[in-house]
Amino acid sequence: SMSGVVVGIDFGTTMTGAAISLPSSNHNRDDISVYTPQSALIRGFEGRKVQTAALINPRTRRLTAFGVPAKLHYIESKSEYLFELFKLALAKVTSSESQVSVRDAGGRDMDLFIVLSESLRFFAEGASEHAAAALKVPNIEMQNIFWVITVPVGWSSAAVALMRRACQAAGMIQHEFAQNIRFVNEAEAATHEIIHSQEFHAAKGAQFAVLDCGGGTTDMVFLEITRLKPVKVREIYRAEGVTTGATKIELCFLLFLEQIFQENFERFRTLAAFAQLMLQFEDCKVLFHGESGDRRFSFAPLLQEYNAIGGMSYTEAQFDNDVKRVIASDPNFSTVRLNKTTLTIPHKLWAKWFNSTIEDIRNLLEMTLDRSETRRIRFIYFVGGFCQNDYVFQEIQKTVEEKGITLVRPPAPDTAIVRGSVRCQLEQPITDRCARYNYGIICMVPFDEYHHNPRQIQFVEGKEYVQVFDVLVTQGTAISHGHESSMKGYAPMLSSDAQVTFKLAVLEEANLDVTRPVYANDKRIQIHTTIVVQVNTRIPLAERVTDCKLRFCGVPELVLTNSEGYPVNFSNVENLPVLVAGRRN
Q1: What tens digit of pLDDT does each residue of 242-271 get?
Q2: Chain CA centroid to CA 435, Å
């Protein structure tokens, strides 16, 4: 970046944080500071992440508060929209055409893009002001800062592209092609911090994994140490992730309340007392340790506030009947106890809610640690907000100890990702990765009756073609940082064509047989990047070739050159993580 400032943002489902490195630092561990926005700060939590809660004015569509202050302001006035857990909606973004809205605490909808961009703007503006103050300069333009944004392993390329566009709308980057931004998966970001910690067990040839479990997603990376001074590692198996985390416990509680209040549930959610109830639930969730500790929740303030609203009535007798109905009809809640307007949730039910998420994590461990590539792993470093709960740590510890693996919880595991995200730009300890997907270009090829399915035939000017997924890199291929695939050339179909549409696609399938055609209408294929390339119609059709290859630098970069080896002209770019157009070597 022009300013030398690097800012990492770990945009989490339940907690969000930022970290800053200034150009004067030597990039030691203590030189990377976790930035906590003052306006989102709760006394005693300096240098920590803040709750992912955004309060947005529906008229101006601008953010007015973030974190716990957003919840407190919402309690005082419900004219603004309060959004929580909205990161989960990004799982619904599967293509550039996806239109996703999120619902606020009062049941009102807003475009997800607005909530994302305003939340990112809040952190970006605050971080740039903080960096300027530290460097004693009047200001630092956000577009002169290098940004590192962490994302879950399981996100689609369309979801990452939406985040990139949200960063542009927030003023962090000038345009989609801006080079002052990078996206990195969360567990990989944590790796950069872990290898600098005293808890890191460094031995050449040793294998380890990093397990990140946060609010809504759980990710893993699998690595081997190839060098000690400085530490260098290579990926031995592709990163994996599942959609599970601490929010699953909260959703169990919300399901219980929804069954109690039924058609009145959305009205109850808009009340200040409901927000207070959920804050109490969050406190209980953090402190749960599994052995004992029933938790009581008084619903009297909620009923009083509801009944104070004109034209609305919900008596204690109704509450009593509705709770007993749920307890009697749903075995999941049969152990809940009721005393007037106070509910007691027994520790065994808490354990059941926790164990549902813990079982998801165990399944991920079983799926990945019994493979030939990962059987020599002896240490797993456990990071993320959810791992701070002792019950969760102990249960996962039991699982991995059976495999002869030691579970390590490094210091400040909740900020390991955001600290590591800054290091991702300052250093490059990961030398080799495994391709997560099969990558290829969607193109037309002449029909071959011995090789192709005749049902796939398409006619172009009377000639028979089929549209296929032309593989550039196969899933699981070992790729070094900066690795480039072999180059392939693609040309327009017709002499009148002044442009060629490149669609870089991904297909998730291990051991793909590249000798058999994969057709473009295969439902497993997802479009990763779409680029329209302008071609020179004054030269012969056979010479209008655009050479294409993939370059891997954390994320795939599509490199396009013309027949003379010069960068092509392009437009209409969609789902673009990074684009590099350069002269052929």
Answers
A1: 999 999 999 999 999 999 999 888 888 878
A2: 18
Cβ-Cβ contacts under 8 Å for 14 (sequence gap 6 or more) = 51, 52, 84, 85, 214, 215, 216, 245, 246, 247, 385
Residue type for position 470: D
Q: At 413, is the secondary structure helix, strand, or coil? A: coil
- State the first-to-last Cα distance of the chain, in angstroms, to the nearest integer: 26
- Backbone dihedral angles phi then psi of residue 20, each to the nearest 5 degrees: -130, 140
Residues of the chain with pLDDT under 70: 1-2, 24-30, 40-47, 96-97, 177, 310-311, 553-557, 561-585
DSSP sequence for 420-441: HHHHHHH---EEEEE-SSEEEE
Closest CA to 275 of 84, 111, 36: 84
Per-residue burial over 451-486, b = 16 or more CB atoms within 10 Å of its CB, e = otherwise: ebeeebeeeeeeeebbbbbbbbbbbbeebeeebebe
Spatial CA neighbour of 378 closest among 411, 413, 403: 403
Q: Which helix (DSSP H) or strand (DSSP E) does residue 35 occupy?
A: strand 33-35
SS3 312: coil
Q: Which pLDDT tens digit goes with each residue over 437-486?
A: 899 999 999 999 999 999 999 999 899 999 999 999 999 888 887 788 88
SS3 call for 329: helix
3-state secondary structure 115-159: HHHHHHHHHHHHHHHHHHHHHCCCCCCHHHCEEEEEECCCCCHHH
Residues in CB range of 143: below 8 A, 6 or more apart: 171, 172, 173, 174, 178, 180
Rounded to whole angstroms, how far apart are CA atoms 123 and 18? 7
Cα–Cα dist 1/146, whole Å: 5
Q: Is omega for the bond preceding 230 within 30 degrees of 0, making it cis?
A: yes
